[in-house]
Amino acid sequence: MRFLVPEPDLPTDSDVDFAIPRQRSELHPSVIAAISAGGALGALARYGIGHAWPAPAGAFPWATFVVNVTGCLLIGALMVAVTEVFATHHLVRPFLGVGVLGGYTTFSTYSVEIRNLIGAHAPGTAVIYLAATLVAALAAVFLGMTAARVVTWLVTA
C-alpha cells in the first residue's frame, strides 16, 4: 500500500475557478468522461433500488433514505481514502466520488418526495423524513470518515 500526506493546497470546493490554471484541468475530457461513466453506474444502482423498493403514496420513502445514507457513508470513507491514505490515479475521485456516488445519491428526489408526502396529506411523515435523512446522512459521513481512519490506523499500526 502506498500512503500519502494530504496536499494542503487541494481545493475543498467542487467549483472550478478558471483564474487558477491548475483547476482548469478539472474540465479535461477524461475527467468529464470518468464522471459521466461513474454517474451512469451510480444512477442505475439507485434506479434499481428504487424500482425494487417503491414507496406507496404517503409512506416513508425507504429506498431513497437508504440510498442517501449509504451513499453518504461511502463518500465519507472514500474521501478519507483518496485524500489521506492512498496515492490514487487522478480519475479515481471524479469517477467514484462525483460520478458513482453523485449519481447514486439523490437529494433532488429527497426534496420531491417531501413535497409529495405533503401533497399526499402526510405532513408528519414528511417532517420525519426531512429530519431523519439530514441527521442520518451527516452521521453516515462522519461514521464513514471515522471508520476509514480507524481501519487505516489498524492496518498501519
Task: Identify the overall geometry.
Answer: globular
Provide the structure class: mainly alpha
What is the makeup of the main sheet?
Answer: none
How many domains?
1
β-strand number: 0
Task: Please report which band the strand proportion falls in: under 5%, 5-15%, 15-25%, 25-35%, 35-45% or over 45%.
Answer: under 5%
Question: Mind explaining what this structure looks like?
Answer:
The protein has 157 residues and is mostly helical. It has one domain (21-156). Helix content is 71%, strand content 0%. The chain starts with 20 loop residues before the first helix and ends with a helix. The mean pLDDT is 88.
Short description:
With 157 residues, the chain is mainly α. It is 71% helix and 0% strand.
Topology diagram in text:
Layout: H1 21-24, H2 29-52, H3 62-85, H4 92-104, H5 107-119, H6 123-156
Helix pairs in contact: 2-4, 3-4, 3-6, 5-6
Characteristics of this structure?
mainly alpha; 157 residues; globular
